[in-house]
């Protein structure tokens, strides 16, 4: 079957890989001149398979007033006149209850573990180099209330198959001595030995390499409209002319919302802008070995070869990939305060990207009311983590195979 995948980020490229394994003739379209140029380019780099609990939760709801009013807050709401933004926000607030958060966590963990298995199978069948390794992840807490919430989440996830450990502040320092500079505010942490790290952009490039020439990447091609008639997609109007296929997969991140509107789909996806810096390590003795998440600062650290990726902030509704100097400076300052003298801050590589998020953080995967249009989108900050499993789930649906997880849990509500 001839299939066009719209989007050459990590979700689109893994989708192309799994579809190609079934012998389909796949073409990937993207308006960028190279693969992985959007949210996949310099994200947090953590493969956090056990940390997929939704942002919509009672804990976040309690803290929301503080985040929205505090100057320099890591979470910011950027209001617009778009009615879709307010509908998204209303659904987000409705999801901030214990029952919905627990149900969503279970579904996200199922997809995440499915994704971990799918990624490992991909690498066993097709070795690819993207600074990937299993290094574990430590999430540190700076308040008693935060630690109580984290331990409650640990107990919930233990019943769902997660293997995690609650650590004291001293345990955290024994595991990661580089955290000595924040000893004064460490209360404890949660450690997950099974977590992994990797360069998402490099994986996109590797996927393009191993898929060539079976999969065509029509880069620098802007899709202007999804053309439909009689309950089907009849083609894509692009700046290079009309392109046709038997099946179409929409995996274009935040751009999916506008493209889906052409096809009569109401996709509850909003951009959440995040930032990162990548800094060269100059003192390896102080650098973290494991991935670190600092809940107090809402900042993640990932060791990538001879560099450290630092990422943070969530600006809900920010529609442009603007590099705000104050955000970049805050990340650099936070890196220096947490791991002093570890990195050279003279030549950090800054980046910002738009995470395509649904109100519940759960992605939308599967069929639509148009019988030859499928979706694989809305992964938020977890695109790297969930991409391989989402792609495998979609390929199973296309092939008519019974998926390893319930497809109905991720289907678009029609």
Structural class: alpha/beta
How would you describe the shape?
globular
Q: What is the CATH homology-level superfamily of the largest domain?
A: D-Amino Acid Oxidase, subunit A, domain 2
| Strand fraction | 25-35%
Largest sheet: 9 strands, mixed
CATH domain class name of the largest domain: Alpha Beta
Poorly predicted residue ranges: none
Task: Describe the secondary structure blueprint for this structure.
Elements: E1 2-6, H1 10-21, E2 25-30, E3 46-47, H2 58-69, E4 75-77, H3 83-94, H4 98-125, E5 133-134, E6 137-141, H5 144-158, E7 165-168, H6 169-175, E8 188-192, E9 196-197, H7 200-211, E10 216-219, E11 223-229, E12 232-238, E13 241-243, E14 247-250, H8 256-262, E15 270-281, E16 291-294, E17 299-304, E18 307-316, H9 325-338, E19 343-357, E20 364-367, E21 373-377, H10 383-399
Parallel strand pairs: 1-2, 1-14, 2-10, 4-18, 6-16, 14-21
Antiparallel strand pairs: 3-9, 5-9, 6-8, 7-8, 11-12, 12-13, 15-18, 15-19, 16-17, 17-18, 20-21
């Amino acid at each position: 079957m001839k299939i066009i995948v719209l989007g050459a980020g990590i979700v689109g490229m893994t989708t192309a890989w799994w579809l190609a394994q079934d012998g389909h003739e796949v073409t990937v379209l993207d308006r960028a001149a190279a693969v992985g140029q959007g949210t996949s380019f310099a994200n947090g780099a953590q493969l956090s398979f056990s940390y997929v609990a939704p942002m919509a939760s009672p804990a976040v709801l309690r803290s929301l007033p503080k985040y929205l009013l505090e100057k320099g807050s890591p979470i910011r709401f950027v209001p617009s006149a778009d009615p879709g933004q307010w509908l998204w926000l209303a659904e987000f607030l409705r999801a901030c209850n214990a029952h919905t958060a627990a149900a969503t966590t279970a579904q996200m963990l199922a997809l995440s573990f499915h994704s971990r298995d799918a990624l490992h199978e991909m690498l066993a069948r097709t070795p690819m180099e993207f600074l990937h390794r299993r290094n574990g992840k430590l999430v540190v807490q700076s308040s008693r209330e935060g630690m109580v919430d984290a331990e409650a989440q640990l107990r919930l996830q233990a019943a769902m198959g997660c293997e995690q450990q609650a650590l004291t502040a001293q345990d955290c320092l024994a595991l990661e001595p580089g955290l000595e500079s924040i000893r004064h505010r460490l209360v404890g942490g949660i450690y997950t030995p099974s977590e992994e790290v990797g360069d998402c952009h490099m994986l996109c490039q590797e996927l393009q390499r191993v898929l060539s020439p079976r999969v065509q990447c029509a880069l620098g091609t802007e899709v202007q409209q999804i053309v439909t008639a009689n309950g089907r997609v009849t083609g894509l109007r692009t700046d290079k002319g009309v392109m046709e296929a038997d099946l179409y997969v929409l995996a274009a991140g935040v751009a999916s919302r506008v493209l889906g509107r052409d096809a009569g789909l109401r996709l509850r996806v909003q951009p959440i802008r995040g930032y990162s810096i990548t800094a060269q390590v100059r003192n390896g003795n102080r650098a973290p070995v494991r991935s670190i998440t600092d809940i107090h600062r809402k900042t993640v650290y990932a060791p990538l070869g001879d560099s450290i990726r630092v990422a943070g902030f969530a600006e809900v509704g920010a529609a442009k990939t603007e590099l705000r100097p104050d955000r970049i400076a805050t990340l650099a300052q936070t890196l220096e305060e947490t791991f002093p003298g570890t990195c050279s801050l003279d030549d950090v590589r800054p980046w910002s990207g738009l995470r395509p998020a649904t109100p519940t953080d759960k992605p939308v995967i599967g069929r639509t009311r148009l019988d030859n249009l499928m979706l694989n989108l809305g992964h938020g900050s977890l695109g790297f983590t969930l991409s391989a499993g989402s792609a495998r789930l979609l390929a199973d649906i296309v092939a008519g195979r019974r998926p390893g997880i319930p497809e109905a849990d991720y289907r678009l509500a029609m």
